[in-house]
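haha ok so turns out i had the wrong file open the whole time. this is the CORRECT one, sorry everyone. sequence first:
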Amino acid sequence: MADGSIKGPVGYRGSIEVPDSIQVGDLVLHDHVYFAVADMVSARDGAKVLHFKYRAPLLVEGSTTVYRQVAYMVSFGEIVYSRS
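then structure:
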C-alpha cells in the first residue's frame, strides 16, 4: 500500500505493535481468522495474555501485527480542483 500500512480487513489498518501498545478491540490474525481482543492481562517481562471471545488466550511476548479500526472523521469544507 502507498502509506506503508499492512493490508487487513476492510475498515482496519495493520501495524506492528509491541505488547504494551495492543488495545482491546484490536484484531489479531490467528489460523487465517481475525479475532478481536476482548480483554488482556499483563504477564512476565512485558508480555501480554490476550483473551478472545471464541478462542483460547494467546501469549504475546514480542512485536506482533495487529489491525486497528480506522477512525473516520466528517469534515465540512470546500474541495478545490486544479489542473496542471
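The mean pLDDT is 86.
again sry for the mixup
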